[in-house]
Amino acid sequence: MKQRYDSALPYSAARMLPKDRFDTLLAWFFVLVWGSGYLATKAGIHYAAPFTFLTLRYAFGVLCLVPWLLFSHPRWPTGKREFFHVCVAGVLVHAINLGGSHYAQYLGMSAGITALLLATQPLLTAIIASQMMGEKLTGPQWLGILVGLIGVSLVVWHKINVEATALASFVAVALSLAAITSGTLYQRVFCKHVDLRSSAFIQFAVSLIVLAPLAVAVEGFVVQWNWTLIFSIVFLVVFASILAMNALHTLMRRGNATKVTSLFFLTPIVAVLLEWAIFNVVPTWLSLGGIAITCGGVAMVTMTRKHERSEAAA
Q1: Distance (Å, rounded) from C-alpha 236 to C-alpha 249?
Q2: Could you tell me where the DSSP H helices lie in 107-138?
Q3: Which residues pair with 48 in a beta bridge?
Q4: Helix/strand/coil for 48
Q5: DSSP secondary structure string, 195-229?
Q6: Is 228 exposed, middle or buried (0-12, 13-18, 19+ CB in 10 A)?
């Protein structure tokens, strides 16, 4: 059976590159963009509160997708059931996930604690996938998840400030963690064959419908317009919400859920390295050791044993 590629990434690239190389390209693209998104978000919410910032983000996302959809003529959901599933996945992955993580930092939770708590997603995904989706992991892969979590803890340890963290922040980040975990799995199970271009438009629109009233009622929709805010919105819409999320969903369709979500372990590392390169925030030796440990943990999770490769080839 011929493999379908309904992603936002170039169809020609999917055809020209071997499967493993194309998956590797998608994985590194996702990690680099998602890690960069921490800095873009940090810059953006200085000038617009979280719900307002996300409302602007998804409004711009809808506007960006309109001409692209008119040009590409994607397949739209064929019935109410498929449309419903696309909307549910969108609210979980976009509105609740990002709304929770942004608001946790807005309420005082440090970036370190936020990154650490969200880095437990691969562990939570592994538990759900092994119990409900029949994805059995090897002992080394389970160990790799724990090693990766320890590595992320060391990477962000210097940024953790428990005293500045309120109960409401923990609730917000817990909602974010539950939403991104359930949302990615939900999309994989119930939206297997949707076109990722049309589904992105639907999910942006439904997220906008959910977030806009909150931006007005809770925050008064106050915006301090400047080029930093505009750049952060453009970057997060085009590269994170459209391209990186489509890369993630494409990988989820093509591979093991736990292996794919283990990529989230690497995103705080990208953020730390970018802070070093752009803002001269030098990482500690503990962070550098954590980077090495995290990479080792991800390698343990994503490795495929020889006999598994032989079975897949057969």
Answers
A1: 17
A2: 111-118, 121-132
A3: 223
A4: strand
A5: -HHHHHHHHHHHHHHHHHHHHHHHHTT-B---HHH
A6: middle
Residue 257: per-residue pLDDT: 62
How many residues belong to the chain?
Answer: 314
Distance CA 154, CA 292 (A): 10
pLDDT of residue 56: 97
CA–CA separation, 87 and 105 (whole Å)? 26
- Burial, 222: exposed, middle or buried (Cβ in 10 Å; 0-12, 13-18, 19+)? exposed
How far the first Cα of the chain sits from its last, in Å, is 14
Kindly report each contact of residues 238-243 with a partner whose C-beta sits within 8 Å and lies 24 or more positions away, as own/partner. 238/64, 239/33, 239/36, 239/37, 240/33, 240/34, 240/36, 240/37, 240/40, 241/57, 241/58, 241/61, 241/94, 241/200, 241/204, 242/8, 242/61, 242/64, 242/65, 242/200, 243/8, 243/9, 243/29, 243/33
For residue 219, the model assigns a pLDDT of 95
Q: 99: which 2 tokens?
A: 């709304």
Residue 13: per-residue pLDDT:
47
**Helices 285-302 & 139-156, crossing angle to 10 degrees?**
160
Q: Within its chain, how far is the Cα of 81 from the centroid? A: 25
Q: How far apart are CA 281 and CA 218, in angstroms?
A: 34
- CA dist 303 and 287 (Å) reads 24
Contact 260, 248 (CB under 8 A): yes
Within 10 Å of residue 1's Cβ, how many Cβ atoms?
A: 3
The residue ranges of every structural domain in the chain are 18-136+162-255
Given a cut of 70, the residues of the chain with pLDDT beneath it are 1-19, 110-113, 116, 133-135, 158-165, 255-259, 261, 279, 302-314
The pLDDT score that the predictor gives to residue 313 is 44
